[in-house]
Amino acid sequence: MNAPTPAPSHWLLDTLQSLRSTLERIEVEEAACLEAIHPDYRASARNLLHFIAFHRHAHPDLPKALRQRGLCALTDCDAHLLSNLEAVITALKALEGLGPSPASGQQDHPRGPSGLGGPSGLGGPDVLQQHCDRLFGALAAAGVAGIMVTLPAEAAERPALVADLLEAGMTIARINCAHDDPVVWGRMVEALSQARLTTGRPCAIAMDLAGPKLRTGQLALQPAVIRARPPRDRMGRPTQPVRILAVQPGAAPRPQDSEAVLLPARLSKVKRLKQGDRLQGRDASGRRRTLSVVRRGPDGVLLLQADKTCHFTSGLVFRQRHGKARLVVGPLAPVSGERLLRPGDAIRLTPEPDQGGGTLPCTLPEVFGDLRLGERVLFDDGRIGGVIRGLSDREVRLAITVAQARGSRLRSDKGINFPDSDLRTPALTAKDIEDLAFVTQHADMISYSFVHRDSDIQTLRQCLEDRGRGELAVVLKIETRQAFLNLPRLLLAAMGHGAPVGVMIARGDLAIECGWEALAPIQEEILRICAAAHVPCIWATEVLDTLAQHGHPTRAEITDAAMGGRADAVMLNKGPNITATVKVLEAIVARSASDRSDRSKPLITCLEFRSNCEPDDPMP
Fold it and tell me: How far is CA 397 from CA 190, 390, 393, in A?
């Protein structure tokens, strides 16, 4: 097999020099943008612009052509791009006999501090480390990712849990303002303060603003159903009767009956019931069912058993076969309603309370004006999807396209995503502004949910300045397709302030918005953009989730956690095994390589970035 023919040297040199001109030209074209950047971030903003221009115009075969000549492929130089490009040009000229050897220390365009790589300037990784220290506080060890842990509500009552998390390796405690209230948050903060004193370990506090809730509204309540099903073998045959514990109001079941199905009931004339007596009636399905007495307690508790599955709803009556004893199923609290949706179904989103039938209430009807025909709508983490077929100010008509053939159930308070729509809904809600009164007093950083426009950042910054906390760090949560495509502009807007800034890759929402198959390249691209901007990045959503919830990790999530170690911090959600999970994560990220592998695929957000740069002549 013949080796690939290297690109002509003059084409390679011309392409590199043209790229350098493109990088320098974007500085001129974005001069007003750079002028608005805070001095602490100006060099980083300049490098981000270089990164954007480079990846918009670099030929896809350029890395291979550079490797063929033994030169740096420029695929791992995001943090200090221009100085590395100049070094490669100098080296190529020396190879072709067109200039001095790189060993002579001469370059075509030596860069000072603003160029990130000149003799008097810090390198990109050093600038990133400085920004990490400002955002997170000094990490336990340079180069090791920080560990952010979402505090459960029980942390408010168990300070020892917080101390255990600190001992295990937590460096950032996350409080989610979408749950609980300032009273509970205050107890969490106090527990963390005590734990820091007890352990002597530092820990920052990150507080998540809830953001706008785009969800299904409250569906009409429906009767609760209690199902009692006998255990079955692998062939589906019942192995023993199901036990049912009928309990009168005020009675307390015994601990040994904890495995029985608990059934609130009103019992009458049951004092003469003995073991083996039967109560008969129809369950919620209308089928005849027989309940046999196992034991009658003196405290208003009756232990029964059934050979067949029973469905109980409020008011059902079961009577003694040859006697006067009676069991009436007690009042059961109604449960949230649901819609059973199938492919091809038509449904209308409305701002009105649940009207049943083919309607579905939406908690944020303000977005209706931003929608267009043919755009997609996703429900419940993408399990159900549809396409917009009609629009008005008061409703959105959808055709369901994604659901199980037998129907998928959609319940109240499930997320709604419009991945194709350009939503203008502000990221900062009235509730968020109210929560800022507490957040600005206790948080070391704010996680900004559903941010997707420059104006969102300006609004939050103004609120912080009004409360005297203009220096408070802000982490931009990238969780929508809009935010991802607008990420460079969001970073430049955030760099206009001197306060620390970071990015969180909210991978769960991104996967829904952009498609599961696109998540891997998207999270890689966000890591690279953050490296180019010298902005700390947090790897989030379902990291080691199986371990935290069930005590045993999957092989896939161990690999995922190791990949997350390349970020500057990794976030864990709460779970019953969270302390052990922190220990495992700390060991994983400590062993993970922090460098980024070679990547040469085209980048999406760089192509979306609006600039006047024109493509240069491609390589042959």
Answer: 49, 5, 11
Say how far apart CA 590 and CA 593 lie, in whole Å.
8
- Among 307, 164, 152, CA closest to 243: 307
Whole-angstrom Cα distance, residue 518 to residue 38?
34
- Indicate the burial class of 456 (C-beta count within 10 angstroms; 0-12, 13-18, 19 or more): buried
Instruction: Give the pLDDT means over successive 10-residue stretches in the chain (620 positions).
Output: 60 91 94 94 95 91 90 88 92 82 47 42 76 75 73 92 94 94 96 93 94 92 93 90 91 76 92 90 96 85 93 95 90 90 95 87 93 96 95 92 94 93 93 96 96 95 95 96 95 94 95 92 95 95 94 93 90 94 90 51 73 50
Tokens found for residue 453: 């426009």
φ/ψ of 539, rounded to 5, equals -90, 115
The candidate with the shortest Cα–Cα distance to 594, out of 145, 138, 34, is: 145
Dist CA 174 CA 247 (whole Å) = 42
DSSP string, 85-143: HHHHHHHHHHHTTSS--GGGT--SS---GGGSSSTTS--HHHHHHHHHHHHH-S-SSTT
CA 440 to chain centre: 23
Q: Say how far residue 162 (Cα) sits from the centre of its chain.
A: 23
CA 201/CA 618 separation, integer angstroms:
54
Distance separating alpha carbons of residues 62 and 255, to the nearest angstrom? 71
Alpha carbons 592 and 553: distance in angstroms, whole number: 17
Torsions phi, psi for 28 (to 5 deg): -70, -45
In CATH terms, is domain 130-212+428-591 a member of 3.20.20.60? yes
pLDDT in tens, 253-286: 776 677 899 999 999 988 888 899 999 999 999 9
d(CA 195, CA 419) in angstroms, rounded, equals 42
H or E element that contains 52:
helix 42-57
Domain 339-417 has CATH 2.40.33.10: yes
Contacts of 361 (CB under 8 A, 6+ apart): 216, 217, 218, 219, 349, 350, 351, 352, 353, 354
- Which residues in the chain are classed under CATH 2.40.33.10? 339-417
CATH topology of domain 226-329: Elongation Factor Tu (Ef-tu); domain 3 (2.40.30)
The DSSP output letter for 459 is: H
